[in-house]
Structure formats: structure tokens, C-alpha cells
Amino acid sequence: MKTVALSGNNRAERGSSNAKTLRKDESIPCVIYGGKENTHFTVNEVKFGKLVNTPEVFFIDLDVDGKKFKAIIKDVQYHPVTDRPLHVDFLEVSEDKALTVKLPVSLKGNSRGVMNGGKLRTVTRKLTVSGLPSALPENIELDITNLRIGQSIKVGEIEKEGLRFLDADNAVVVAIKRSRVAVADNDDEEDEEGAEAAAEGAEAPAAEGGEEAKAEEPAAAE
């Protein structure tokens, strides 16, 4: 995963009244945990919004008054009406500890089924995975080039080195559905081989039948 930078300031006071004051100043109360001790701090709402309003997942190089952390966003609480962020939980990252994150699905290639009129349906847009920080990609890339009408890719069929997929094995990620304009999705090579075999099969009985008729023809009377 890629890494972005974010700066914050230590939060000397805590409590609901202080949190309201901070939000009026466009500061968001935050906490980072997972290390030796929890650290309470604030970040600018506008700067944080640029990070969170995206489908991407990334590591954060966090600088809190000169103290450095490598972290990920673990949870964001939003106001039910205004949708403004009220509080953010960060998790400190350790290179030797596995992380559980949700990664977006990225599709690669032009599906054969779609080119034959099928309809591409993305059922699961994010997958929950576990792995060491060094093994986590920016997204889960799936090649759909050979996916035909009626076929799908399920979680249990995906293999990525260093990752463990936590969603149900039978959960469908992407599928090609039949549509009204879909045409027959047959393998061209198989069709040619089948046609040749059929032609050979049709010719063989005729030849054999001719030989039998010739052999059984009675001799002319003397």
C-alpha cells in the first residue's frame, strides 16, 4: 500500500465540551493505539477529509508535534446529520504484526463474456484480508479476461502471496450475467475441432457403406 503524510497536535484536554470546541475550530479529536501507550491528538478536518474521502487504503506517516507514527485509519465516527467526522481512531502499525484491512477490488482485462453481450456485475467491491504490512497491496487485482457468460470469481478462488482472505469462500466477487443481447459464448477452437470431427464421422459411414455394397453385389450369371 502507498503511504501519505498527516500532521497533528497533542490534545492536552479531553472531554465532550473540549471536543465540541475543537470541532468548531475544524479540528477532529483523535487517538492512536496499538503501541506502548495511547496518544490523544487532533488533526485538521479539511486535511483529513482529503484522505478519507477516497476508496483507496493507505498507510499514514503521522507526525504529532514531532513524534512519528506509522498508522492506518481504523475507525471514523460521523455526525448522523451533517456527516462531519466527529472522532478518528488510528492503529499504530508494526512491521512484524499482521493487519486486517479492507482492500478495494480492481478488475483487469476485457471479459470474453462481456464482449459476447453478457453483463458484468461486481458483487463485492472490497475484500477483507489479513497480512503483514509489507505484503498488503493497494488493491486486489482480478483478471477477468477469460471470464465467460455464466461464470464468476469467488473469494475461495483468489490467491495472493502473503494474504489471507477472511470473507466466505463461496462469496461471489464478480460475475458475468446473461443479457437479452448475449450471443453464444463457445470456444472457437473447440467449435472448429467439433466441426472437423463431425465431417469425418459423416464421411466414414458413406465410404464403408459403398464398399459393403460393392462386395455384396452378386456375380453375373454365365
Task: Give a structural overview.
A six-stranded mixed beta barrel has the order 1-3-2-6-5-4. A four-stranded mixed β-sheet has the order 10-7-9-12, with no helix packed on it. Strands 8-13-11 form a three-stranded antiparallel β-sheet, with no helix packed on it. 22% of the residues lie in helices and 37% in strands. Residues 188-222 have low confidence and may be disordered. It folds into two domains: 3-93, Ribosomal Protein L25, Chain P (Beta Barrel); 100-177, RNA Polymerase Alpha Subunit, Chain A, domain 2 (Beta Complex), CATH 2.170.120.20. The protein has 222 residues and is an alpha+beta fold. The chain is built from four helices and 13 strands. It is elongated, with a radius of gyration of 31 Å. It has helices at residues 16-24, 45-52, 112-115, 188-215, and strands spanning 3-10, 27-33, 39-44, 59-64, 67-78, 85-92, 99-108, 119-122, 126-131, 140-143, 152-154, 164-165, 172-177.
Q: Give the class-level CATH name of the largest domain.
A: Mainly Beta
Count of discrete alpha- or pi-helical segments spanning 4 or more residues: 4
The low-confidence runs, each spanning 5 or more residues with pLDDT under 50, are 188-222
* Average pLDDT over all residues: 82
Brief rundown of the structure:
The chain has four helices and 13 strands. It has helices at 16-24, 45-52, 112-115, 188-215; strands at residues 3-10, 27-33, 39-44, 59-64, 67-78, 85-92, 99-108, 119-122, 126-131, 140-143, 152-154, 164-165, 172-177. The longest helix has 28 residues, at 188-215.
